[in-house]
Amino acid sequence: MEILVAPGIELRCDGAPVPYRQALDFMTARNSAIAQGSAQELLWLLEHPPVYTAGTSAAADELLDARFEVVEAGRGGRYTYHGPGQRVGYVLLDLKRRSRDVRAFVHALEGWVIDTLGHFGVESWRSEGRIGIWTRDIDGREAKIGAIGVRIRRWVTMHGFSINIAPDLSHFGGIVPCGIEEFGVTSLARLGHSVDFDMWDQALLARAPKFLAALDQACGERAA
Q: I need a labelling partner for 199 at 20 to 30 A (CA). Which of 5, 27, 164, 191 fits?
């Protein structure tokens, strides 16, 4: 049975880990189908086996230890890690139906993740000059708890966000995450929050209307 996030937006949730290359191929095909008007928009929630992905700005010296497969992702940004215990959200939306404003889309996506973290009692924020979602770690320092990376093809979005629920944080040690050396990474589990994927997904989906409304508002402001 098809599940909709909103009219015209399909929801897909995968319980078993999906290999990154397989997901990338699926996303690429679905992106083209959406652009052609032959498929619905999509929110895809999933988990990957351990993998390092390289964005278009990835620098070779930021891959410190290629202990896992390395895949060129085609999205913006630098190196990031995906693996068990991390929830990934791929958001494929047709911005021609909304606002052809990439910054507004990224801002709304960040806000969606920040609002969802707040539901679990975790204060998080954007940080000027640093990509991603940031919070206060157990040592009091700022640390990244979520990554944002997008690509736009024919005004249809690809990729999206990842949130560290309970991954093995040592796996991030093979890269300089997003090119930022001076800050670490953290997770909901490290911060003492017992959250599973179902809990995260329910909280995220409950806030989907606010995320979509933010895009509609950006579209209205642009038209004005």
A: 27
For tokens 């939306």, name the residue.
93
Between 3.30.230.80, 3.20.20.150, 3.30.930.10, 3.10.105.10, what CATH number should domain 3-223 receive? 3.30.930.10
pLDDT tens digit sequence for 106-158:
999 999 999 999 999 999 999 988 889 999 999 999 999 999 999 999 999 99
CA distance 188 to 92: 26
Structure tokens at 13: 């949730």
Three-state DSSP class for residue 180: coil
Is 13 annotated as catalytic?
no
Closest by Cα among 40, 95, 1, 46 to 204: 46
Cα separation, 43 vs 135, in Å, equals 25
**Euclidean distance between CA atoms 95 and 105, whole angstroms:** 8
Domain residue extents for the chain: 3-223
Q: Going by C-beta distance under 8 Å and a sequence separation of 6 or more, which residues neighbour residue 172? A: 81, 185
Token pair for 97:
């139906």
Residue 207, judged by CB atoms within 10 A of its CB (0-12, 13-18, 19+), counts as middle
Digit-coded pLDDT (tens) for 149-204? 999 999 999 999 999 999 999 999 999 876 667 789 999 999 999 999 999 999 99
How many other CB atoms sit within 10 Å of the CB of residue 174?
18
Phi-psi region of 63 (alpha: psi -120 to 50; beta: other; left: phi over 0): beta
